[in-house]
Design brief:
Elements (H helix, E strand, L loop, with lengths): L2 H14 L2 H8 L3 H15 L4 E3 L4 E3 L1 H27 L14 H15 L1
Antiparallel strand pairs: 1-2
Helix pairs in contact: 1-2, 1-3, 1-4, 2-3
């Protein structure tokens, strides 16, 4: 089980209000949303959400866990943003299309020399 993914699905279920909406927002099947939730509840050995055919409600444990999940996911997102600031931006690729064989030969040779 991917714990972070299961936590993300759990938060999305709570934020969207039901499993069906969460599945649409996450672009995964409702069955997979339910599976992630069951795996998370099994991992924690606790029920996080009371489910009926019409609505969901958080248990007391679910309320507490939801707050922590939001904090963890926010910290991860913040960490990724900070990390991306520290790495140099990628060099842009340039496409060069020679018009004839002579240009192709010289461009290939000159670019090879330049790269050394």
């Amino acid at each position: 089980m991917n714990l972070l993914q299961a936590m993300s699905v759990f938060v999305k279920i709570v934020d969207s209000g039901n499993l069906s909406s969460a599945s649409v927002e996450l672009d995964i099947s409702p069955t997979m949303v339910g599976k992630h939730l069951r795996m998370l509840e099994s991992h924690l050995n606790s029920t996080l959400i009371n489910r009926t055919t019409r609505r969901i409600s958080l248990t007391q444990a679910g309320k507490s866990y939801y707050i922590h999940c939001r904090e963890v996911l926010a910290l991860i997102e913040e960490g990724e943003k900070e990390f991306k600031k520290t790495i140099p931006s990628r060099q842009k690729n340039h496409n060069i299309s020679p018009r004839c064989a002579w240009e192709k030969y010289h461009l290939t040779h000159d670019i090879g020399v330049y790269g050394r």
